[in-house]
Amino acid sequence: MSERIITLLRKDTRKISCFFEGTILQNLTNKQITEMIDEIKSIGSIRSAKIFFDVKLQSEQHRKFIHLGLRPIIVPSDVDLYMALDILDTLHFGEKDIVVVAVRDTQLLPVVIAARDKMEVMIITDNKDVAESFSNYSDYLLVLQ
In angstroms, rounded to a whole number, what is the distance separating the alpha carbons of residues 96 and 48? Predict the structure, then answer.
């Protein structure tokens, strides 16, 4: 019976897929990251959370992100390219309602515009100029201090 109730509740919540640029989260404390994740969870339920890096992580950092529920992905070079491919993959094949994108620059703006046509978009950034650029194309905007 309880399994059935949980299944029904899960279907009713909005499904969120998160994509984080690693440089944004590396300098944040566990508490700050937890508060940010709680803010995202207030909108719906997080189904996947990936954090992209172009450098090898120290084992403490790797464990920190795993413990917080984020899946670190190490890519060979351009983080934005791999994030864009994953976001587009989620757009076309995923059954998500909201996509969360954490960025430092505007290189992913075309991908966010494409995502906005199919689902809601939340942008997380630590740069006010970037926040202004994305403000017209996002449903939710979170500027980190």
Answer: 10
The whole-angstrom separation of Cα 138 and Cα 12 is: 23
What is d(CA 57, CA 127) in angstroms, rounded to the nearest whole number? 24
Second-level CATH architecture of 2-143 = 3-Layer(aba) Sandwich (3.40)
pLDDT string in tens for the chain (145-residue length)? 567 666 655 556 899 999 999 999 888 888 999 999 999 999 999 999 999 999 998 999 999 999 999 999 999 988 999 999 999 999 998 788 999 999 999 999 999 999 999 999 999 999 999 999 999 999 999 998 7
- 3-class SS string, 10-58: HHHCCEEEEEEEHHHHHCCCHHHHHHHHHHHHCCCEEEEEEEEECCCCC
Dig out the tokens for 37 from the structure.
């994740």
Identify which of 124, 97, 113 has the alpha carbon closest to the alpha carbon of residue 37. 124
